[in-house]
Design goal:
single chain; alpha/beta; five-stranded parallel sheet; four-stranded antiparallel sheet; globular
Length: 225
């Protein structure tokens, strides 16, 4: 049974989430603040976290960062904050998806299901890549740069693997979004901007002047070996 941790300071929203998730055979635990959520994660890692950003103690973004320090559990943000900067900050901290309030329950459930699926095995490329001190092996889920291990999250690996499967080829934004998040995400181009920036920080010698993970403005991305 899939274990969902729902975190929100609004008891009515927690009750709604608990009822609807349990009706669909999810195991659900709820938390009304960040510290309680982190305690639950420390005791038993969920399969997916549904997380509000506006918590009364630890901010939702801080919760994401602290969870990401030890875990790759999928995190779906559920927040009343509609501004693009808030979305980018949450994704940059390590969230996998972002749903704004008020929300449709069916949409949220679909995104929870998608997050759980993405939390599984990372699609691999046909070959590992080794170039300029960088070694990427999606089959093993290992990355090293100049001999040092580099940690990539499952979402980052999915993006890297999708680009490695098409070496040198332009991968259009919609194509990459479909590969990594699914057809419902074809307009979420800011997801790609955030994650490619993270990937470059981890894997490029000079993230401001990348040599391998390139952007074609307005079109998409390509991996150049």
């Amino acid at each position: 049974m899939t274990f969902v941790l729902a975190v929100d300071d609004d008891p009515a929203i927690l009750r709604t989430l608990r009822i609807n998730l349990r009706a669909r055979d999810y195991e659900v635990e709820t938390a009304g603040d960040g510290r309680s959520a982190l305690q639950i994660v420390a005791e038993r890692e969920p399969d997916v976290i549904v997380l509000d950003l506006g918590l009364p103690d630890v901010s939702g973004t801080a919760v994401i960062r602290r969870v990401r320090a030890t875990s790759n559990v999928p995190i779906v943000v559920l927040s009343a904050r509609h501004e693009s900067d808030d979305k980018v900050e949450a994704l940059d901290a390590g969230a996998d998806d972002y749903v704004t309030k008020p929300f449709g329950m069916e949409e949220l459930l679909a995104r929870v299901r998608a997050a759980v699926r993405r939390g599984g095995a990372v699609p691999s490329s046909s070959h590992a890549v080794a170039i300029d001190g960088l070694v990427l092996d999606p089959d093993d889920g290992t990355a090293t740069k100049d001999g040092a291990e580099v940690h990539l999250t499952p979402t980052e690996w999915r993006i890297v693997a999708a680009l490695l499967r098409r070496p040198g080829r332009l991968v259009r934004q919609t194509e990459l979004l479909r590969d990594v998040w699914g057809p419902a995400y074809e307009r979420e181009t800011h997801y790609l901007r955030v994650y490619l920036a993270q990937i470059r920080r981890k894997l490029e010698d000079d993230p401001a002047k990348p040599k391998h993970f390139l952007t074609e403005p307005g079109l998409g991305y390509r991996f150049v070996a």
